[in-house]
Amino acid sequence: MRQHNSVFHELTKRVPWTVFDGLVEKHRADRSVRRLTCRSQLLALLYGQLAGATSLREIEAGLASQRAPLHHAGARPAARSTLADANATRPAALFAELFEHMAGAAAQSLRRHMRDATRILDATTVRLTGLSADWARVGDSHAAAKLHLVYDPGAAAPLQAEVTPATLNDITAAKRREITPGATYIFDLGYYDFGWWAELDAMNCRFVTRLKGNTRLENVIETIPATGEGAVRAERIGWLPERMARSRRNPMAVPLREITVRIAPAKTLRLVTNDLDSPAEASKPVAKRSFAPVARMKAQKARRAQPSSTASAGRSNCFSSGSSRTCVSAVSSAHPRTPSASSSMSR
Fold first, then answer.
1. Which residue stretches of the chain have pLDDT < 70?
2. What is the reported pLDDT for 268?
3. Secondary structure of the chain in the HEC alphabet?
4. Of 153, 42, 67, residue with least CA distance to 107
5. pTM for the predicted model, two decimal places
6. Which residue in 249, 251, 237 sits closest to 202, CA to CA?
7. CA count, 13 A, side-chain hemisphere, 320
8. Neighbours of 251 (CB within 10 A)
């Protein structure tokens, strides 16, 4: 009799089990485990996600009816209470590192064309129920966590994800990640750190972000006036202030390009990039592909916000859907940066 694998079996074949077993050993996640191993836990969670289960009881019932396929996959059915205990006590870093490995493997084809690779960095705060108050309490009013994402618009998928306390700054999470040499990074004011910008530049990366209102370019060497009625109103090339607070020397000691774009009849944004050569007017398909995912994320956050939350109402945002077509005006997929002699390819 001819054997046909189930869809679930075909999906689990994509999991790098050798890597997973190594991560289990690294985190000692199966130490003192008698019944439900980490492999069985992962398969149970995958089944619950793909089956659309709304409770652990549904997962338990579904797995109980698939004992034979689970046995061939090296797993066993999970009791509801056992699965609940595993979810509460097993290290979450085990599954986070597995996700990063698989996401990185999925993007290998894009790394061959690094000049076209784009990384969008963003973070969003997720409100939690009172059940999470013991580890995710924010003040005295509610519980929340923060999701940090690195999104690849070319693959239309996240490459890295990290869940942290809601009080962790966006730039702190970004500094813990490995920089992809030669890629283009797009981010907002949450990543305003000149030292980190200098690291990106040293790795031959391009970046595009906004300038704060109190940051002015000094020693401007070139000014390009606006022409026509396009979104770009002005361009100029100069340096960031040499000295920072407390007389510290600014580590970002290379020329930058400031681009002023108009997003409304009386509203403009000041963008900054270390790409001095690419045309300011990038193609609209590139802009749409790069910023559409972030625009959707911002819209979802706005819908989830409570009606009384008006602190951010009316605040301009480089990643809002209304300005997404202009924020990538300094990014060109057709003109890679020329590596400088001083660029370092090691972090």
1. 1-6, 73-74, 106-116, 226-229, 246-247, 280-347
2. 82
3. CCCCCCHHHHHHCCCCHHHHHHHHHHHCCCCCCCCCCHHHHHHHHHHHHHHCCCCHHHHHHHHHCCHHHHHHCCCCCCCHHHHHHHHHHCCHHHHHHHHHHHHHHHCHHHHCCHHHCEEEEEEEEEEECHHHHHHHEECCCEEEEEEEEEEECCCCEEEEEEEEECCCCHHHHHHCCCCCCCCEEECCHHHCCHHHHHHHHHCCCEEEEECCCCCCCEEEEEEEECCCCCCEEEEEEEECCCECHHHCECCCCCCEEEEEEEEECCEEEEEEECCCCCCCCCCHHHHHHHHHHHHHHHHHHHHHCCCCCCCCCCCCCCCCHHHHHHHCCCCCCCCCCCCCCCCCCCC
4. 153
5. 0.58
6. 251
7. 13
8. 17
Using CA atoms, how far residue 290 sits from 133, 170, 185, in Å, is: 36, 20, 10
CA distance 248 to 136: 35
